[in-house]
Design goal:
The complex is a heterodimer of chains A (about 325) and B (about 500). By secondary structure, chain A is mainly α. Chain A is built from 14 helices and no strands. Chain A has a single domain, classed as MetI-like fold. The longest helix of chain B has 18 residues. The chains are: A mainly alpha (about 325), B alpha+beta (about 500). Chains A and B meet through loops of A and strand 9 and helix 6 of B.
Chain lengths: ~325, ~500
């Protein structure tokens, strides 16, 4: 286990180092008044080390617009993006896992074709376009759900964790649950748009994984023993079909994040995408390296975390504990 | 964006500051067009018309906030501070937030105000360099707001004078609470306001560049008032019974200026013929929808000096072509149409307007070229005079004809400051200067009539449209006052059904 962890962390370390080099190049060439590179010497290596030391100590510089520390701002906005992604993930899992399982169980039947048609149409609709279409909904159906902004302006909720759903629950007591539900209402449509893409992805993964499991020998053996189909599916197939989806989904993480960032811009939600775009528009290029580092290190950490998690929960994956020799 | 109407003159900033955070010495009664007291209780004019004495109201409180606690009421020092910042070049606050480059920062007052004296704590005296009847109009304008000297001194001691424009302190009905980089500005009620107040505890402004989203927010009840609805949605909005579409005519006018120093535009008959060639009706329909009114005069019909007789449509391309042929106009030369790159309040789409003008000119056989510039390149081009015509407009802040005629027609006004026709005529200049010192109202009106007649025949400008100020107000909200010159006022606003 220890050597496995070391191998993973080694990978993390090297990748992170490459990322900081890229961030350094951006910082050096794009950001006009950067304060975190020591330019007293002309040696690029020394400059890079001064930069590295600064970012390791959490010193990412300050915004040229409002003089706020960039790292704290960036993390706050990133939390909003994650909030949107998580809600989108919940929505799509609720719909997609049952559909995927059904598709896998009844492969090549009419039901399967219907499910796959839904999945395919979800995949072929660009998220940005769906977002813009949803913006027009109030004109068609009346004002069911808000399509713009984070939270109704009457609620004044300070950002403590960055996750507004949590902040509305715990930071401001005076609004009761109203602010929380208002936040939820503001997130519903964007999360629904994001879940469009995710649903497609999860249906396909679940269906494939389910098919593979149902074809395996131990399921055949279970049938031969005369177990009922329900018992086979719920007791044996499902728990083996679902875990392989998670590492597959991990590969989609950066796609999900970039879609979430696009959706933020369409729906005018606070978040990484909106922050980066508005800062760049205002000429605050210092956000570029910071935003890149936050997003990439999140994806990196998360991938490795999933790796470790998979090893813990899935016996098949445990093989990777031992290096191939 | 600053919260000081002395330095931020765009409509959005004014709406958010001038009536909400601040008060002025006098104000204009919108119904009678007379000046009425605001912070000044009364005023007197000296016999030589050079001195105005203002007596200030007693017990006026400044805002009490977490960044400033006033220890005294408003007095003459505050008035002196507010105006000296603009006119006194040695004032410690004169250069704060780099306003010296801003033409409008001190312009209206430096032109005629020589000094301001404190007579006693409650009396101030404005001394003019020459008699000028527009003083009161200027004091009622949005930029004549009164700041707190005590606050300014505290900031100076703390070494942060720049905060005066971003964490404002005033005497208005609302006080500043917070603002953020996303353009959300929060005000709360000023408890010690000297006039009766509304039931509004919090006033929130939010910036949203999409007109469709603004309207959606109004419909869903997330906001109560929206400014500038999309011109194309006006018809739908006016049919909705839950909202009120408030339209106010303004004096802001869209213009097409002829460079009168350019050889082939020197003849006033040519300029008149070109004016005849332009189909303003189509421009109005294609660019403004219902958000402006076609016009043929510089002054809007709400101005007291407006000469109504002149306002008729002169569109007649055949006559225009005939005149030009008779005048031996050189049709081979390409006419330049200069225009700013970004939309302004007086023109939502300069480029489309220019294209329509181009088509009209082509109809009478004149080739033209559209030149789109912005920022300093535009300024340079204007000041060196290398253009035939310029598509522009003027934003009017006070209800005095001088504020529109002087920038456009005075010999002392540069093209960057408004005189893009490079018009300079002895007759106009004399009339302009005489009217400023004329205290006989009838004679003043007569002078402005003469100027308008002169402009009608000389045609340095083709006025295209007077722009409307449009706001959509939710039915839940009553008594929103919209002043087309200085912005929106929520002082008496009542929101029903607060839950």
């Amino acid at each position: 286990m220890l050597s496995f962890l070391i191998r993973r962390l080694n990978l993390l370390f090297i990748t992170a180092l490459i990322l900081t080099i890229i961030a350094f190049i951006i910082e050096k060439n794009v950001v006009v008044n950067n304060t975190i590179i020591d330019t007293s010497s002309n040696n690029y290596l020394l400059q890079y080390f001064s930069y590295l030391i600064n970012i390791i100590t959490g010193e990412f510089g300050y915004s040229a617009l409002d003089n706020q520390p960039l790292l704290a701002r960036g993390l706050m906005f990133f939390a909003s993006t994650i909030e949107l992604c998580l809600l989108g993930l919940v929505f799509s899992s609720l719909v997609a896992i049952p559909l995927g399982v059904l598709g896998g169980l009844f492969r090549d039947t009419k039901l399967d074709y219907v499910i796959m048609t839904i999945a395919l149409s979800g995949l072929s609709l660009p998220v940005f376009w769906v977002g813009v279409m949803v913006l027009l909904l109030p004109g068609v159906w009346g004002d069911l759900l808000p399509v713009d902004g984070n939270l109704s302006l009457v609620y004044e909720v300070p950002s403590v964790t960055g996750f507004l759903l949590i902040d509305t629950l715990f930071v401001t007591d005076q609004y009761g649950l109203f602010a929380f539900f208002d936040r939820l209402a503001h997130l519903l449509l964007p999360a629904l748009v994001l879940s469009f893409f995710l649903t497609t992805e999860i249906i396909r993964l679940t269906r494939h994984s389910m098919t593979m499991v149902m074809r395996s020998n131990y399921i055949k053996a279970a049938y031969a023993k005369g177990f009922s189909r329900r018992k086979i599916v719920f007791a044996h197939a499902l728990q083996n079909a679902l875990p392989p989806i998670i590492p597959q989904l991990r590969l989609q993480l950066s796609t999900i994040l970039s879609f979430a960032m696009t959706i933020e811009i369409v729906f005018n939600l606070d978040g990484m995408g909106d922050w980066l775009l508005s800062s760049l528009n205002a000429g605050d290029y210092g956000v570029l390296p910071v935003g890149m580092l936050i997003i990439t290190s999140f994806i990196l950490f998360f991938s490795i975390l999933i790796d470790i998690l998979m090893v813990i929960i899935s016996p098949i994956m445990r093989g990777s504990l031992y290096a191939n020799q | 964006m600053s919260f000081n109407p002395q330095i931020s003159h765009d409509i959005a900033s004014l709406d958010a500051t001038t009536h909400q955070l601040f008060s002025r010495l006098v104000k204009l009664n919108p119904d009678t067009n007379k000046f009425i007291p605001d912070l000044a209780e009364s005023w007197q004019q000296s016999d030589d018309k050079l001195r105005y004495r203002f007596v200030l109201r007693k017990n006026i409180n400044f805002h009490q906030t977490d960044y400033f606690q006033p220890t005294r009421y408003l007095n003459a020092d505050d008035v002196l501070f507010s105006f000296n910042r603009m006119i006194d070049k040695k004032h410690p606050y004169h250069t704060v937030n780099n306003q010296t480059q801003n033409y409008f920062f001190n312009h209206p007052f430096t032109a005629f105000l020589s000094e301001i004296n404190k007579i006693d704590d409650r009396t101030v005296e404005f001394v003019l360099s020459k008699p000028d009847v527009t003083l009161l109009a200027n004091l009622a304008a949005h930029y004549a707001v009164i700041h707190s000297q005590e606050y300014a001194n505290q900031l100076l001691q703390r070494g942060h004078p720049e905060k005066i424009d971003f964490q404002p302190i005033g005497t208005g009905p609302f006080k500043f609470k917070s603002s953020n980089s996303k353009g959300i500005v929060r005000y709360s009620k000023h408890e010690n306001y000297w006039q009766p107040m509304t039931n509004i505890e919090n006033l929130i402004y939010v910036k949203n560049p999409s007109a469709t989203k603004r309207y959606t927010k109004l419909l869903s009840g997330e906001c109560d008032v929206i400014a500038y609805p999309a011109a194309s949605q006006l018809e739908t909005i006016s049919k909705n019974k839950e909202v009120v579409l408030n339209s106010k005519s303004t004096s802001n006018v869209a213009l097409w200026a002829f460079n009168t120093k350019q050889d082939q535009l020197k003849d006033s008959k040519v300029r008149y013929a070109l004016s005849q060639a332009i189909d303003k009706k189509t421009i109005l329909q294609a660019v403004y929808f219902q958000s402006a009114m076609q016009t043929n005069t510089l002054l809007s019909n709400q101005s007291w000096a407006h000469k109504a007789r002149n306002n008729s449509d002169i569109f007649n391309p055949e006559a225009a072509k005939k005149t030009l042929v008779a005048l031996d106009y050189d049709f081979t030369k390409v006419l330049t149409i200069l225009l700013p790159e970004n939309a302004d309040v007086f023109n939502p789409n300069f480029h489309k307007t220019a294209q329509l003008i181009q088509a009209n000119l082509a109809d009478i056989g004149i080739q033209s070229e559209i030149v789109k510039l912005s920022g300093s390149t535009l300024q340079t081009r204007l000041s060196n005079g290398n253009y035939d015509t310029y598509l522009t407009g003027i934003n009017v802040h006070i209800n005095d004809p001088d504020s529109i005629f002087r920038p456009l027609l005075s010999c002392n006004s540069s093209p960057e400051n408004g005189n893009s026709s490079r018009w300079c005529s002895y007759k106009t200049q004399v009339l302009l200067d005489q009217s400023l010192t004329e205290s006989n109202f009838a004679q003043r009106i007569k002078n402005y009539y003469l100027i308008q007649d002169e402009i009608m025949t000389q045609r340095p400008y083709l006025p295209i449209a007077h722009v409307l100020r449009l706001d959509v107000i939710s039915g839940r909200v009553k008594n929103v006052e919209v002043n087309s010159l200085t912005g929106i006022n929520f002082q008496n606003t009542i929101k029903q059904d607060l839950n």
